[in-house]
Amino acid sequence: MTSSDANPTAAVLIIGNEILSGRTKDANLPHIAEKLGEIGIRLREARVVPDVPEEIVDALNALRSRYTYVFTTGGIGPTHDDITSECVARAFGVPLERNADAVERLERHYAGRQQLNEARLRMANVPAGGILVDNPISAAPGYQIGNVFVLAGVPNIMQAMLDGILPRLTGGPPIHARTVSCELAEGRLAADLGALQERYPQLEIGSYPYFRRGDFGVSLVLRGTDEAALDAAAEELCGIVRTLGGTPALTIGAKG
Known about the structure:
Elements: E1 9-15, H1 17-21, H2 28-38, E2 42-49, H3 53-64, E3 69-73, H4 84-92, E4 96-98, H5 100-110, H6 118-121, E5 125-127, E6 131-133, E7 142-145, E8 148-151, H7 155-165, E9 176-182, H8 186-199, E10 204-212, E11 215-224, H9 227-243, E12 249-253
Helix pairs in contact: 3-4, 8-9
């Protein structure tokens, strides 16, 4: 891992042909980004890969060597195309095992309701050394191995799993945000915005145009861990907007 303990980073690996085909719209990435930002972990990269073993293994190895944490979503269900666990085991060079604790969880969940068949038992296959991640909704667990957390793709299940593992993570200073919105076009702001970024290299400053209710404008978002620098930069930015003939609207948030 290349990130220091004081500045933890993360990546998300989204697995599934259904995402790449457009059939399923991913809802997990923004939720993960928001939750990690709340505890000071910066999401630095996200990749979407198909249900192709070589591509999953290559992407996982690249991400886990670069970032403090990696979160995978999708591919841990009971069907033939749920191959994430097999690929994670290959990436780590360990066998895929039938986890006894996972089997017990599934047996309790399906007792008296549905047959726990071999397809469902596939959801108890975990790479050797994996630590289970609770699934309070449908019982089939995710797991952690090394710095990788393997989570479900169904959004409400993924969210429940993520809530359970957040206490395991070592965060950094909270990431705060200030947003200055105005009716000016990006082109008028570009030069001054670039100069502001140079004056505040410790902050991330982004420009996001919008068009709503027949009006166009731009939201200028400043993010960082130094609230004093954020306040100073936001004040300067409001002044820039006024000088250019705009009317700034400042929003202060605990996170960005």
